[in-house]
Amino acid sequence: MLCLVLSVVPIALVPLGAGPATTPWVLAGTRRFADLRRVPAAEWGGVRLPRAHRPAPGRGPAPGPARPPCRARPRPRGSRHRYGRTAPAAQRERNPSCEGAAMTTDDWEDRTAAAWAGFDDDPEQDPAAFRAVIDALAAELPGDGPRAPFERACAWDSTGHPDRAVPLYREALARGLGEADPYRGRRARIQLASSLRNLGRPQEGVDLLTPELDAPSDELDDAVRATLALCLSSLGRDREGLSLVLEALAAHLPRYRRSMAAYARRLTDAGP
């Protein structure tokens, strides 16, 4: 509705003489906003919404097949259902070796989100072929940044290879992923803990995620608690795990939030 209003109002002002100056600017902003919303739809809902508009004549590339990745230094990227929301433009990494190509960070994010959405939509897709697609996209990322190993870790993790993912998650965090992109840094710790648990090392997962309980709150809070609860359960600490799960659930209940939160605390206060 907001996009519709912003588009219609300046057009209606054309007869008054103000429209010609404001319409192009407003429509460009509206289109950009709509494009940004397409990415979370693909990442979180698995719904791919194609662009309904074309670039103005003489601006941007003509409609056609997507441009192949620029041939810089090959590097990977990825994360299936774990692929998170698009980072703000200021946090997105650019590839200086591709400055001559018509590649933008928005375009890269769109193509990557579409690759992950396609993977989610097709459970029969060959994992190796999918990783090759992600690797080609990752080749457009700077080789010394933290994002490339993180994306490679996600791809291996989501195709059933936590053993290959763990060292890549650690590399991404060691390169400063949490400082450069706190949201993806937190995702990396959650996914690393889950992979460690799957490899029979749940205590390492507990050590990794326990500090996250006191981290600044965001939409990953419940994922932190759920993954930590699984790690605790694998260690035989089921009451602590259940307490975390109840605590996370209580915040979403239409009623009984206070009582459920109290029950969650009592599970650990009462001891075994």
UniProtKB/TrEMBL annotation:
The name of this protein is Tetratrico peptide repeat group 5 domain-containing protein
Q: Which domain of life is it from?
A: Bacteria
Give the compositionally biased regions (Basic residues): 70-84
Alphabetized, the UniProt keywords read:
Signal
Q: Which InterPro entries does the record match to this protein? A: TPR-like_helical_dom_sf, TPR_5
Which residue intervals are annotated with compositional bias (Pro residues) in the record? 58-68
Look up the signal peptide feature and give its range: 1-20
Q: Does the keyword RNA-binding apply?
A: no
The answer to whether UniProt assigns keyword Signal to this entry is yes
Domain Tetratrico peptide repeat group stretches: 147-267
- For the region Disordered, what residue ranges are annotated? 48-102
Q: Pfam families of this UniProt entry?
A: TPR_5 (PF12688)
